Amino acid sequence: MNANLKICVSSLALSISLGVGSSSALAKIPDQEIKKLDAILTPTGGERGGNVEGTIPPWTGGITKPPADYTPGGNYVDPYSSDPVQMTIDAQNYKQLQDKLTGAHKTLFEKYPSTYKMSIYPTRRSASYSKDIYKAIRKNASEAELLPLGAGVRNGSVSSPFPIPQSAEEILWNHVLRYRGDAISSRTGYAAVTSGGSYTPIMTERDIIFIYAQEELDARKLENKFFYLKVLTLSPPKQAGNISLVHESIDQVSSPRKAWQYFSGQRRLRRSPSLAYDSDLPNTDGLRTTDQYDMFNGAPDQYEWKIVGKKEMYVPYNSYRLNDKNIKYDTIIKANHINQDLPRYELHRVWIVEGTLRVGIQHIYSKRRLYLDEDSWQVLVTEEYDSDGKLWRVQEGHAMNYYDQPLVWTALEVVYDLQSERYLVEGLDNEVPDPYDFKPGFRLNDFSTSAVRREAKR
After folding, report:
1. Which of 73, 399, 439, 441 is 20 to 30 Å apart from 303, CA to CA?
2. Share of residues in the chain with pLDDT > 70 (%)
């Protein structure tokens, strides 16, 4: 393969260097390139223009205010509920459209030919953030730097550090560090679903304070901290009262994440020595690795990454129905896969990056491929391969704009294990009243080990 591969993306030709090692110093973005964020590119780095066919519209600011019938703190009203289904893709016709389908979706059509389908809706470029977030991203464009091996980022803050990325690692960090609010307290659940469709939901209370997102906290002065996370298990009864505490760093090679777990039966808070990379993620019944949390997280240093390209593809988007409080968990969760009458898929431009496991590194995935939304840097789809190079697991991040903030995050995340024919659903909150609080008023001390011990005794 040539060191430089030109990829034509709709009306904008991007020249992407595929021969630059992740440990090499990348040149600073020139001022004339950064000015493209005012015209050719969106403030986050997507293309402002639509495609030639008109099937992808121009970005005109995304959702700039909540729908008129939205009640603050209530159900997120679907602003596109009147949109018609333009096309249904199933096992009978997917090969005619496979150029716009991820490998994950093509495999799901083949795995479940009688039930799996994708309903395609008009493309709505709904992604939006506040002016302050756009300002911070623009500042990052001129100041943020990638650390050797892509292990971290310096001189970035608030949101995605590389709106005009020069490497696959920069694209990954755009997802990992994207803006998700200053802090959030949420009550959501997981469900590990058997091949027959049975499940027992695990409900949790999840509290996060994003240090990186708050300029007044300044992660650079707080020992490289990215966020603090505390997860309290509410049910089922056998697991109720268990607490996980995580102190997440940005550069995890020089300063790995710190994690503790409190088990109510043992009544002790213990340090977790290996909550990283391919260790099992708690509450997922072995169906998701730690570095698959939030679709992808942590240091990307275990893989050699490359940019595959940027392409128009059918991906989950504007997934408000999966967040609808009028829909029960039993309506969402079915045998083999979630109820495919509910997800919404649209044609969007996505960045595609691929990682191959470095020689001498141990990880259960030999290769992984990620598809990221150009307008938000949210990972929408992933593919994970086993040691024999066979597709093992795939993930869908059903994204939506939490427009009262505004920010883009997932309504639901799904991990399909193609070998065991089981799957994991994360983000169940449909049966929870008022599940989100983006202004919880947390202090850093609320996430100390002593605070967790006090909470556990209550």
Report:
1. 399
2. 93
* Element containing residue 454 per DSSP (H, E): helix 449-457
For 178-198, letters b (16+ CB in 10 Å) and e give: bbbbbbbbbbbbbbbbeeeee
pLDDT of 13 over the 50 cut: no
Cβ contacts of residue 361 below 8 Å, gap of 6+? 302, 303
User: Among the listed ranges 16-25, 114-123, 127-136, 359-368, which one has the minimum average pLDDT value?
Assistant: 16-25
Q: Could you give the angle at the alpha carbon of 192 between the alpha carbons of 187 and 195, nearest 5°?
A: 150
**Whole-number Å distance between alpha carbons of 33 and 164:** 8
Phi-psi region at 267: left, alpha or beta (left = phi > 0; alpha = psi -120 to 50)? left
| Strand 118-120 versus strand 145-146 pairing type | unpaired
Mean of pLDDT values over 305-319: 98
Lookup: tokens for 265: 């039966």
3 state SS of 332: helix
The three-point CA angle 141-39-138 to 5° equals 20
Q: What is the CATH number of the domain that holds 413?
A: 2.50.20.10
SS3 415: strand
SS (H, E, C) 96-156: HHHHHCCHHHHHHHHHCCCCCCEEECCCCCCCCCCHHHHHHHHHHHHHCEECHHHCCEECC
Which letter does DSSP use for residue 348 in this model? E
Could you tell me the two tokens for 376? 């938000």
Judge residue 389's burial from the number of C-beta atoms within 10 Å of its C-beta, 0-12 exposed, 13-18 middle, 19 or more buried: exposed
* In-domain check, residue 148: yes
What count of other Cβ atoms lies within 10 Å of the Cβ of residue 215? 13
What's the total number of domains in the chain? 1
DSSP-derived 3-state class of residue 230: strand
Per the structure, the complete domain to which residue 194 belongs is given by 4-66+124-457
pLDDT digits (tens, 9 = 90+) for 283-303: 899 999 999 999 999 989 999
